[in-house]
Amino acid sequence: MRKSGIIPFLINAAIFIILEIAALNMLRSNGELQNIWISKGSHVFMGTVWGSTQQIKDYFSLGRTNDELARENHELRMRLARFEQKEADERESSYSVSGNVAGGYRYIPAEIVKISTGSSHNYFIIDKGSVDGIIEGAGVITGKGVVGVIDAVSRNVSYARSFQNFDMSISARLGKEGSAGPMSWSGKGGSKAILKEVPHHVEFHQGDTVYTSGYSSIFPPDIPLGTAGEAKIVNGATYEIDITLFEDFGALRYVTVVENTGQEEIKSLENR
Q: 202-250, pLDDT tens digit by residue?
C-alpha cells in the first residue's frame, strides 16, 4: 500500500473508533436512563401492589375489629345489666324484713355458631357446653333482651330454643312496676311479640318499655325487652299488646347464658 493511501485509511479507522466509542457511551447512558425508569416503574408498581394488598388486609382486619368491638360491646352491656341488678337487689334488701335477696345468677358469655330464623320453631347453637358449666333450662340473654332457653347440652356446645319459637313464652311486665303477663313471639317478623293477659284497667302508653317480670326461675327481673305498641281488648277483660323487641335476631351473635343458682331448690319446692 502506498503511503498516500495509508493516511486516509488511518483517518477513517480513527473516525470509526471514535464513533464506536460514542455509540457505546450512548448505549451505556441510555441503559442507565432505562434502569432509572425501570427502577421508578417497579417502585410505583410495587407501591400499588402493596397498597392493594394492604387494603385487602385492612378489609379483613376490619371484619375482625368489628367482631371484637361487638363482643366488647356485648360484655359491657352485660356488666351494666349485672351492676344495675346488683343495685336493685341491694335496694330490695334494704326494704325487706328478712333482708334476703332473691336467688343469685351466674353469667357465662358465649358465641352463637349456628342459628335458625326462618321457621316457626327457631333455635340456635352456642359454643359453650357442660365443661363450661352450661346446664339445661338456663336462660340466654343479651343487653337487649331475652333470646332463648337452653334445651340440650353436650360437652362443648349447647342447643337453645329461640324466643322466636311458638313453644316459648316468658313473663314480662309493663314498666318496672306495672302489670305482668305472658309474652311470646308473634310470628310476624323477627322483632314482634305479643304481651297477653294484661288487665284492661291498667294504664299504659305506646312507647312504654317492657321488662322481664322476675316471676320466673330462669330470668332475672328488669331486663329490657322492647316497647309497647297498639293494644286490643280480648274477651272484654284483658289487653293483648303488640311489642317491638329491642333485639335484632337477624344480627344476633354474642349472648350470655344466665343460670339461677337457686333454680334446683325452687324446682324441688314446686314438685312437692
A: 889 999 999 999 888 899 999 999 999 999 999 888 999 999 999 999 8
Kindly list the domain boundaries of the chain, sorted by start residue. 1-101, 105-270
Instruction: Write the CB contacts of 227 (distance below 8 Å, at least 6 apart in sequence).
Output: 206, 207, 208, 209, 210, 243, 244, 246
SS (H, E, C) the chain: CCHHHHHHHHHHHHHHHHHHHHHHHHHHHHHHHHHHHHHHHHHHHHHHHHHHHHHHHHHHHHHHHHHHHHHHHHHHHHHHHHHHHHHHHHHHHHHCCCCCCCCCEEEEEEEEEEECCCCCEEEEEECCCHHHCCCCCCEEEECCEEEEEEEEECCCCEEEEEEEECCCCEEEEECCCCCEEEEEECCCCCCEEEEEEEECCCCCCCCCEEEECCCCCCCCCCCEEEEEEEEEEECCCEEEEEEEECCCHHHCCEEEEEEECCHHHHHHHHCC
Put simply, whether the predicted model's pTM sits higher than 0.85 gets the answer: no
| Cα pseudo-dihedral 66, 67, 69, 70, rounded to 10 | 110
CATH number (3.20.20.100, 2.30.22.10, 1.10.150.120, 2.40.10.340) of 105-270 reads: 2.40.10.340
Grid cell at residue 190: 323477627
Q: How far apart are CA 223 and CA 202, in angstroms?
A: 21
